[in-house]
């Protein structure tokens, strides 16, 4: 969850008390071996005691509450193995992981977005498990999400879910604005259609806007999300074309930048959008200050339902000033006449190694732990809490007795979104992927913040990204139109 994603359920993590553990401690077992951060466990016989470390954020609303039970269940299944979990918040997950990686002693397993795999592969700190993952493990997963855990010929962990990045609407407000949301769920909408729709959702009281048509989190951990989600539907499903040319020098990229600025200038989005983080975005939605919110994740329907229950119970624990809300899944609009493409978050349990090559026994144990977390009861419980579909056969079986109160229209809408999912690109060379991440962090994110704040024009940002891309990938390594 930067989740990549990787910001899945980030707002639900606010206020969670996190106890920090030592991520890479020694394994003080009977044979005195030390497997800190996946270091060599040479000398361990089959069945010898071993400890697997995992750095895990609040993947779902109740995920971290289950850590003790997860560890107990894993030890019951593998009596010689100990699963030692270090909790992290979404806000400090990347910093914690990078600190440990830079020290050469990362956890054996970390929950991250698949889009971060190339970065750590380039640093030589990921553990390729293609020779340790059994055929039964691999065949348990749906093919599409599993492909996201690959880079080149390597396999670097197991996926937890394939989550569609969508928008979320307030049913009452959509209906008042005359928006046929069921048709939009089935057939999508263009940017022009979306622009006109969110204008209808704006409510003003004098010169003050009391409700916006659309709000998207663009600050903090969500700073990469807005543009990354939108450009998928503008003919750029990935940062690289199929012949590995950097795509964001396309004229369509400029069109998306113009549209981003236009929605603010229309008054459909707040002028202060660049300061809206994930928590504020969700608060604005629950308190009726916006008709549509983004990034919309399936778990938000569950969160809205629970807040509605708190309002009904009048127990004072609901979000202050919130109103009852029927959450509606909506697609992201498409741009420049391009077909819809859904951004998907395939986050999962990525396997790391230390400076030393891990022993075959320790590697196999790490794979057992990663698979345990990504499948069966653990996966079913987590995904049910998130309102996302299970992507393993074992998870689907375990979920059969679990109940959920999802809106069937939303279930169908997510199905449509996933049918347009951007394909995995394990063929992109590691060095290109790492360079693209660096360009995003150093150029795109700060320039986008300036664009949202009205400090630069779309053209200014486009020119800056284009120059940086040519400097990074060369004249022949970028799209020319």
TL;DR of this structure?
The chain is of the alpha/beta class.
Question: Can you tell me about this structure?
Answer:
α10 packs antiparallel against α18 and α17 packs antiparallel against α18. This protein has 481 residues and is α/β, with parallel strands linked by helices. The chain folds into two domains: 223 residues, D-Maltodextrin-Binding Protein, domain 2; 165 residues, D-Maltodextrin-Binding Protein, domain 2, CATH 3.40.190. The strands form three sheets. It has a five-stranded mixed β-sheet with strand order 2-1-3-12-6. The protein contains 18 helices and twelve strands.
How would you describe the oligomerization state of the chains in this entry? Answer: single chain
CATH level 4 superfamily of the largest domain = Periplasmic binding protein-like II
Considering DSSP H and I runs of 4 or more, what fraction of the residues is helical?
25-40%
How many H/I helical runs? 18
Q: What's the overall geometry?
A: globular
Low-pLDDT residue spans:
1-46
Tell me what the CATH architecture of the largest domain is.
Answer: 3-Layer(aba) Sandwich
| Backbone structural class | alpha/beta
Estimated share of beta-strand residues: 5-15%
């Amino acid at each position: 969850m930067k989740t990549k994603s990787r910001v899945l359920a980030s707002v639900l993590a606010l206020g969670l008390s996190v106890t920090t553990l030592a991520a890479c401690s020694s394994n003080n077992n009977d044979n005195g071996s030390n497997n800190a951060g996946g270091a060599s466990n040479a000398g361990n016989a089959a069945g010898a005691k071993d400890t697997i470390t995992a750095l895990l954020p609040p993947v779902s609303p109740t995920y971290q509450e289950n850590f003790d039970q997860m560890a107990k269940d894993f030890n019951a299944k593998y009596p010689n193995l100990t699963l030692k979990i270090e909790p992290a918040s979404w806000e400090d997950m990347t910093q914690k992981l990078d600190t440990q990686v830079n020290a050469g002693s990362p956890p054996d397993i970390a929950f991250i977005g698949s889009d971060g795999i190339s970065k750590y592969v380039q640093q030589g700190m990921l553990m390729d498990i293609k020779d340790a993952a059994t055929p039964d493990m691999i065949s348990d997963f749906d093919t599409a999400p599993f492909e996201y855990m690959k880079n080149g010929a390597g396999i670097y962990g197991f996926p937890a879910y394939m989550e569609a990045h969508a928008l979320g609407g307030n049913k009452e407000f959509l209906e008042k604005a005359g928006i046929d949301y069921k048709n939009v769920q089935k057939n999508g909408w263009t940017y022009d259609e979306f622009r006109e729709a969110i204008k209808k959702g704006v409510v003003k009281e004098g010169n003050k806007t009391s409700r916006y048509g659309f709000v998207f989190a663009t600050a903090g951990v969500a700073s990469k999300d807005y543009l990354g989600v939108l450009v998928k539907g503008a003919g750029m499903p990935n940062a690289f074309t199929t012949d590995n040319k950097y795509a964001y020098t396309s004229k369509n990229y400029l069109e998306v930048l113009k549209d981003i600025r236009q929605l603010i200038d229309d008054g459909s989005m707040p002028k202060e959008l660049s300061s809206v983080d994930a928590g504020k975005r969700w608060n604005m939605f629950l308190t009726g200050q916006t008709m549509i919110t983004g990034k919309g994740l399936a778990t938000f329907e569950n969160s809205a339902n629970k807040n509605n229950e708190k309002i009904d119970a009048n127990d004072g624990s609901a979000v202050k000033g919130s109103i009852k809300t029927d959450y509606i899944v909506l697609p992201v609009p498409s741009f420049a006449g391009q077909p819809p493409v859904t951004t998907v978050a395939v986050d999962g349990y990525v396997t790391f190694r230390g400076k030393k090559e891990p022993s075959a026994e320790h590697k196999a144990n790490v794979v057992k732990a990663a698979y345990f977390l990504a499948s069966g009861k653990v996966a079913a419980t987590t995904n049910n809490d998130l309102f996302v579909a299970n992507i393993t056969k074992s998870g689907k079986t375990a979920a059969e007795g679990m109940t959920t109160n999802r809106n069937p229209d939303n279930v169908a809408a997510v199905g449509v979104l996933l049918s347009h999912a951007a394909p995995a690109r394990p063929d992109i060379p590691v060095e290109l992927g790492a360079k693209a991440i660096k360009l995003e962090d150093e150029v795109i994110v700060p320039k986008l913040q300036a664009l949202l704040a009205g400090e630069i024009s779309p053209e200014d940002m486009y020119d800056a990204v284009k120059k940086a891309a040519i400097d990074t990938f060369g004249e022949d390594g970028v799209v020319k139109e």
